[in-house]
């Protein structure tokens, strides 16, 4: 059974309880880089289960999602109340063939876009954190909520990567 948008939101926000989202966003790329350092491309490309993503696929996903979230933030900051379109990550993974992406290239792209997104978030006035968009699946999402979701998404995939590399 596929997770509902509400269940997804609750789960992802649960990962960051007691954490500062901007701190999570600032540190996750370094933590992931440390986890994958020295791991072979072959090992990174191995799926823990046939229906699960490999680390290579997760890294490609992180790069794509960072681009999407940065775009969403900019939409919301530029036009308060704007529509935000959801997407199917599995379809993106399939047509983009995440399994064949170079993990180092995905990390590079993710880190570069993340740095730009962090710069933006740190530079906007506090009142703009209340700007919002209407997500097609999850409803109203403020800049604050988008940032929290990004941080929870990071923790989710950081833990996945850690478990895959440890062979759990």
Distance between the termini: 23 Å
Under the CATH scheme, the architecture is Up-down Bundle
Number of helical runs?
Answer: 7
SSE topology string: HHHHEHHEEH
Count of domain modules: 1
CATH-defined fold name = Four Helix Bundle (Hemerythrin (Met), subunit A)
Describe what this molecule looks like in 3D.
- The protein has 168 residues and is mainly α.
- It has one domain: Four Helix Bundle (Hemerythrin (Met), subunit A) (Up-down Bundle), CATH 1.20.120.
- It is 64% helix and 7% strand.
- The protein contains 7 helices and 3 strands; from the N terminus they run ααααβααββα.
- A 3-stranded mixed beta sheet has the order 1-2-3.
- Helix 1 crosses helix 7 and helix 4 runs parallel beside helix 6.
- The longest helix has 24 residues.
- The chain is globular and about 45 Å long.
- The mean pLDDT is 96.
């Amino acid at each position: 059974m596929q997770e509902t948008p509400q269940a997804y939101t609750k789960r992802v926000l649960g990962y960051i309880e007691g954490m500062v989202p901007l701190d999570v966003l600032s540190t996750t790329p370094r933590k992931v880089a440390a986890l994958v350092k020295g791991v072979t491309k072959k090992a990174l490309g191995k799926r823990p289960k046939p229906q699960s993503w490999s680390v290579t696929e997760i890294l490609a996903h992180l790069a794509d999602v960072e681009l999407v979230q940065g775009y969403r933030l900019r939409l919301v900051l530029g036009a308060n109340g704007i529509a935000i379109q959801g997407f199917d990550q599995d379809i993106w993974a399939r047509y983009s063939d995440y399994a064949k992406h170079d993990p180092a290239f995905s990390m590079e792209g993710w880190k570069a876009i993340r740095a730009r997104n962090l710069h933006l978030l740190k530079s906007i006035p506090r009142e703009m954190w209340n700007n919002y968009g209407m997500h097609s699946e999850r409803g109203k999402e403020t800049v604050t909520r988008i940032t929290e979701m990004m941080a929870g998404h990071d923790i989710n995939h950081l833990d996945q990567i850690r478990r895959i590399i440890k062979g759990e």
